[in-house]
Amino acid sequence: AGHDFIPPTSSDIRSPCPALNTLANHGYIPRSGVDITFRQIMDGAKEAYNADWSSILTAVKLGLLSGDDLNSADKINLGALRLHNLIEHDASLSRQDLGDGKGDNVRFSEERFSATIANKNPGVDFYNVSSAGEAMRDALAHSIATNPLVVNTPKELVVRHGESAFYLSVLGDPITGVAPKKFVNVFFREERLPIAEGWKKPSTLITTTTLRALGAKIGRFSESKPSQKCGPFVSGP
Ligand code: HEM
Ligand code: MG
After folding, report:
1. Residue 89 scores a pLDDT above 80
2. Which domains does the chain have, with CATH numbers?
């Protein structure tokens, strides 16, 4: 109940994450996009996507570092997640780079999406680990060619492989990584759960273990190598 798709109003805040935006558009987390609790995100991810706490724990912790408003320091604000180089990174699949001259690293970009995910696996109706890897490869090549400020360290590579594993898992199968194109396309383009198109949340629980296994398979096709080093980064005890 209360989980109908309602597009954001002009005062609702959204993020560079298609999955959090979708949770908000369906009321699994506050539709306003502000002052979201740790627990609301954990419960929403489980209920909507069958993703367990382990699969998003680090992301939520990092998300809490994004804001600087003392009154909501223990809450997630979808708008704050745009903070470049904390979680938000270059070479996204569906957003432009902050440094590529257009300066919008938050809103969905059909231009990016159709040049990365959407033109893969021609002639078949599913995406998989090879198409996901090729999409990552093309996104990174585009960023390196067009963004003089591109950041591509081991940290971005880990995050990006995790995100690609995550959309194949949520819209498809967390073990095989096969996901119907029509589900993935609706999810990115409309930030809507493709229930009307026949999608059901995965019956296999999504965990860090399933995501890492899928991410490693995607990595065989992404041809992504770090072009810069990163220093040690501590995100918890
Ligand atoms: C980006 C999926 C949870 C923060 C992404 C992307 C995917 C994704 C596929 C890549 C978008 C692109 O490349 O264009 C998911 C899924 C989640 C989830 C399925 C399960 C609930 C979270 C959480 C946070 C978060 C809990 C933080 C609180 C972000 C941010 C980005 C992002 C900041 C932007 C990265 C970028 O592309 O520059 N997510 N995410 N996500 N996600 Fe999530
Ligand atoms: Mg980005």
Report:
1. yes
2. 18-222 (1.10.489.10)
